[in-house]
């Protein structure tokens, strides 16, 4: 009777000790929750380590009993197995985060939606991946929306500062050469003086401006001054008659002889004579790419623009297919 009582007493003490050790471990785990982590990933990793440490402490408490029995060994073994399972689960989550572009967002969705049946674990991962992708897209859309402004600011009026001294170009005060009105209007004035006609007729390939006799002489003089320049055919806005317009295209090439006297640089001479060529390291393979759908849907616009560029001699028609033919694209502004 005494032996049974003493055995019962020892088992009771052992059980109380295991319970107290377990309660202490749980209390330590709860106390760690008071710490506020700055990063969610660090917090999750820390909580996982606390769970594993709790299982190991419970196993240690079972093995430190005064009289080690079969029940204590079984309890310790069970706690160790639970700790191993926690480590394996964490390793699986780390692999899941590493295999996805969204990282730990997928893990958060995976953990937040548990499924009892382990056979559907793969489907669970796929669903977590889909949810994480949807949330990521929604966050991008939300960030892309402009923030509403509480009030609209009135645009500030631009105030030009008055420069000291006089302009070296016109001699007037208040501005310098870079802001001189005469410099800004120099090209536009000279160009408009040549091409200001009320109407234009074509007679044997030269101009017959319909102006008064008093101004006819001066206009013809100005036209003759640009006879030697490169010209293109333009259409008068008031009539359907074509006439010549001044264009800078070809002026450098016409005077190639003068350029050869000025410089011996072969690159400059080649650019003036043959045009600029992109210096490829390796010559690209022959390719003819079809035009994009936007140009095919706007054939009339494309034809008109190509005709305009040909008339202005900004482009030229070639008889041989080039090495690479890029597709045409029409961009429309809505």
From TrEMBL:
The keyword Lipid metabolism does not apply. One of its GO terms (molecular function) is zinc ion binding. It comes from the Eukaryota. PROSITE patterns: ZF_CCHC (PS50158). Coiled coil: none annotated. Pfam families: zf-CCHC (PF00098). Residues 121-141 have a biased composition (Basic and acidic residues). Residues 166-182 form the CCHC-type domain. Residues 1-21, 118-164 are annotated as: Disordered. Keywords: Metal-binding, Zinc, Zinc-finger. The keyword Metal-binding applies. This is CCHC-type domain-containing protein. It comes from Mytilus galloprovincialis (Mediterranean mussel).
């Amino acid at each position: 009777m005494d032996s049974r009582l003493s055995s019962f007493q020892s088992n009771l003490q052992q059980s109380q000790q295991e319970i107290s050790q377990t309660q202490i471990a749980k209390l330590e785990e709860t106390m760690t929750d008071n710490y506020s982590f700055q990063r969610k990933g660090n917090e999750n990793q820390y909580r996982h380590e606390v769970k594993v440490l709790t299982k190991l402490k419970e196993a240690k408490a079972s093995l430190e009993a005064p009289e080690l029995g079969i029940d204590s060994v079984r309890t310790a073994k069970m706690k160790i197995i639970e700790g191993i399972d926690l480590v394996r689960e964490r390793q699986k989550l780390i692999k899941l985060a590493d295999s996805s572009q969204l990282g730990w967002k997928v893990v958060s969705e995976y953990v937040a939606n548990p499924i009892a049946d382990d056979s559907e674990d793969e489907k669970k991962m796929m669903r977590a991946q889909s949810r994480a992708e949807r949330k990521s897209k929604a966050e991008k859309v939300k960030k892309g929306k402009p923030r509403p402004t509480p009030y609209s600011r009135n645009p500030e009026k631009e105030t030009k500062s008055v420069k000291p001294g006089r302009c070296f170009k016109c001699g007037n005060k208040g501005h310098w050469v870079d802001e001189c009105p005469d410099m800004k209007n120099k090209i536009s004035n000279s160009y408009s003086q040549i091409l200001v006609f009320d109407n234009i007729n074509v007679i044997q390939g030269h101009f017959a401006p319909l102006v008064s006799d008093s101004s006819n002489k001066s206009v013809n003089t100005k036209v003759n001054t640009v006879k030697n320049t490169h010209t293109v055919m333009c259409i008068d806005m008031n009539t359907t008659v074509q006439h010549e317009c001044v264009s800078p295209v070809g002026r450098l090439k016409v005077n190639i002889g003068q350029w050869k006297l000025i410089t011996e640089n072969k690159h400059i001479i080649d650019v003036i004579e043959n045009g600029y060529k992109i210096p490829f390291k390796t010559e690209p393979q022959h390719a003819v790419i079809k035009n994009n759908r936007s140009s095919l849907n706007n054939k009339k616009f494309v034809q008109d623009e190509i005709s305009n560029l040909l008339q202005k001699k900004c482009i030229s028609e070639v008889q041989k297919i080039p090495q690479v033919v890029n597709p045409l694209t029409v961009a429309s502004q809505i």
